[in-house]
Design a protein that fits this description.
mainly alpha
Length: 150
Amino acid sequence: MLAVIVEILLAFAINRLVGTPVQWAALIALPLAAVALLVLATPPGVEPAWAPPPEPPAVAAHLDASLLAGRLEDAVHDQSRYRSRVQPRLAALVVAALRRRPGLGDLTDLRDPRAATELGPRWHAMLTDPAATMPEPAVVLALLERLEEQ
């Protein structure tokens, strides 16, 4: 509606000011009315959302077996690496496996008594005790096989 009004006003102004015939004035005013319509129909500028970029995840979201194997290799020589790198990732892997079992879908971490019951005291201590040391590869393999079979 506004574009039609602008077209009529421009055609009238061109006709009166320049003295062109009405048909030519309307034809000349048509592109000017289209530009006016675009200017009037364009929404106002959007304010940018000034927010800092999101923090990268603190822990790897995907537990890759090759990464775990490399960390196990490093942890053999340095027990603090076991406690800081391998133990938390191994615990996350075990929690994910335990959640697939019936009745444990809401398990959040290994501090839950149901996790201690399912794992047994030896493996539960290996995964939760802050003073735990790097177990033998056969022990880790036995734990992982036990989790996969159920």
